Amino acid sequence: MKELILLDSYLSIKSFLNNLQQKQFTKLLQHLDEGIPELIDYIQETYEDISEDFLEFMTALHEKIKVNSTEEFTSQLKEQSNSDFFMNHFVSVYRTSMQPYFDGEYLRNIENNKFELVINTIIRDIFVERKYKKPESLIQILGNEDGEEIRKSYRIISLFLRNFFEQNSSYEDFRDFLRDEFNFEGDKPNIFVNIIKDNNRDGQLERYFLFQNLQEVKRALSELAVSIQDDESNDPGDEDQVEVQS
């Protein structure tokens, strides 16, 4: 793969960034701070001509971050221009957004039998049978030496299953997702799918995550209601009009 600094898409983006007015550049940074998906949506809506270059560059950057190989690129960004400042921030935000990939390193590297044990134990004991509320309770069962890795595994398994049920994904799409996005190789995608099937025979697993999603919606609505009440209590309203009679 060509170095990021030499990609035609990067050169186009660099020119685009350095030609933005300060107000436009600030707006772009605001969307970047909201997250990568929000940034891409904004670019596609507002700067359609450069959107393909952004997507191409992101694909290349994604692969570089996976193998922790962005130092050569970022070392050439001196923040002497809009493009350098933006790209430094962009790489940092993108790397943070890929934390689930790095959390999956343990699951990528362990043998299939340990992989199956970890996945099945977390899903069965926490999500289905609800013996435990936190992954720390499973550390002794799964191996004391892997405590932090069990916590990371719990996080990404939760993420995988939440997305799987919320998006109503097919098992085949889920297998492809594990292979393509998280580099789960060999039989691991099939093992994961079979564990989901075994633990969701009566819909228990799906109900757990749909309930979690419902609770998140309720919390969001409650926070919104409190915010509205606070705004109303702080609003002085219209001053009473007093009619003066002569």
Describe what you observe in this structure.
The protein is mostly helical. The protein folds into 2 domains: 4-97, no CATH class; 102-205, no CATH class. Helix 3 (36-46) packs antiparallel against helix 4 (48-66) and helix 12 (171-182) packs across helix 13 (188-199). Residues 241-246 have low confidence and may be disordered. It is built from 14 helices and no strands. It is globular and about 55 Å long. The termini are far apart. The protein is 73% helix and 0% strand.
Instruction: Give the total of domains.
Output: 2
User: Outline, from the CA principal axes?
Assistant: globular
- Poorly predicted residue ranges: 241-246
Major sheet attributes: none
Classify the secondary structure makeup into a structural class: mainly alpha
Strand content: under 5%
Spatial extent as radius of gyration: 24 Å
H/E element order: HHHHHHHHHHHHHH
Mean of residue pLDDT values: 86
Cα separation of the termini: 86 Å
Assembly context of the chains = single chain
Counted by DSSP, the helix tally is: 14
Number of beta-strand segments: 0
Q: Determine the fraction of residues in helical runs and give it as a percent range.
A: over 70%
